[in-house]
Write a structure and sequence with these properties.
262 residues, alpha/beta, TIM Barrel, 8-stranded parallel β-sheet, 16% strand, globular, TatD/YcfH-like, hydrolase activity, metal-binding, DNase_TatD-rel_CS
Amino acid sequence: MFADSHCHLNYKGVFEQQGDILARARARGVGAMLNISTRESEWDAVVATAEREPDVWASIGIHPHEADQHPDIDTARLVERAEHPRIVGIGESGLDYFYDHSDRPRQQASFRTHIAACRATGLPLIVHTRDAEDDTLAILREEMGKGAYKGVIHCFTASGAFADAALDLGFYISISGIVTFKNAHDLQATAARLPIDRLLIETDAPFLAPVPNRGKPGEPAFVADTAAFLARLRGEPIEVLAAGTVDNFFTLFDKAHRSRAQ
């Protein structure tokens, strides 16, 4: 069994094929998927998919690209929505200085709002960071000083030093199909040494299809290909890697574990 810790099943072009996409994922052994929201207008649809599909769970959050458009999303609003039993994470939130689609101070304020919601709910934080390692780490550390929370660095592409700092904070690290790209040498070196008890795998579908699916829209079925590459890279049996990352999924997203057991 595999777990896709981060996918977008309600994006245009995906939602219309959602049934077929889920069937293909299940046929390849994907038994758990976390459907991520990036703006408030998606929340209802993302949650509805999780209500309908027993192996899909949901997050609620505001992507840093969308921070300028959601100035009124506060901690109380996130906490209120997170009461739904199929919502198991807060995010994705964080900092993106590569595109700078939203004002940086607004991104930072939104990020802190999401962290506060994680502390209030006990749900994990799903972190997006791109070209913003220093500020991301500074905020994570500062906020950890206000009270503990847990989380995952999604679609990890940062430096090895950032990985070590995130692990020191107790975070998990999620590896996407980027690790299979031929020029991803630094990422491959980091992924090869991550402790298996802190490792997750994701597709970020419909993006970042791994080799041998480059050029296709990403989908959760492809998490099996990324897992196979990682197992070879790390010198681990695929069964060990798959079992470890699935256990990590349900450990981090404990609410999913509890709902699955019911």
